[in-house]
Design a protein that fits this description.
Layout (H helix, E strand, L loop, with lengths): L2 E5 L2 E3 L5 E8 L2 E12 L6 E7 L4 E3 L7 E6 L4 E6 L8 E11 L2 E6 L3 E5 L2
Parallel strand pairs: 2-11
Antiparallel strand pairs: 1-3, 3-8, 4-5, 4-9, 5-6, 7-8, 9-10, 9-11
């Protein structure tokens, strides 16, 4: 059973920074891509950033230049460094990964971590 565990959310003031982490556990043969999505109240879930196994990245326009996604393959962990946060970044952030495990290639989601930007 593959699981994704997120950490690092919380309350931060406008202009501040947070780093989210997401660790994949279980029987994992390979990971195609790992990334982050977010969902604000009353809005659809949206892509924030994704990192493929070939180190290709894709960012939402709203976070370019402020957020950085990175990956530590030996730990099956993806990070999201978030700088210059503003109120529009307030949302539940979800880790997402496409993982090849015992049951084949599957798409997995974490349980979500709340990020609140407020003074």
């Amino acid at each position: 059973q593959v699981q994704l565990a997120e950490s690092g959310g919380g309350l931060v003031q406008p202009g501040g920074s947070l780093r989210l982490s997401c660790a994949a556990s279980g029987i994992i043969f390979s990971i195609n891509r790992m990334g982050w999505y977010r969902q604000a109240p009353g809005r659809q879930r949206e892509l924030v950033a994704v990192l493929t196994s070939g180190s290709s990245t894709n960012y939402a326009d709203s976070v370019k230049g402020r957020f950085t996604i990175s990956r530590e393959d030996v730990k099956n962990t993806v990070y999201l460094q978030m700088n210059s946060l503003n109120a529009e970044d307030t949302a539940v952030y979800y880790c997402n990964a496409e993982i090849y495990g015992r049951v084949g290639l599957r798409n997995y989601w974490g349980q979500g971590t709340q990020v609140t930007v407020s003074s």
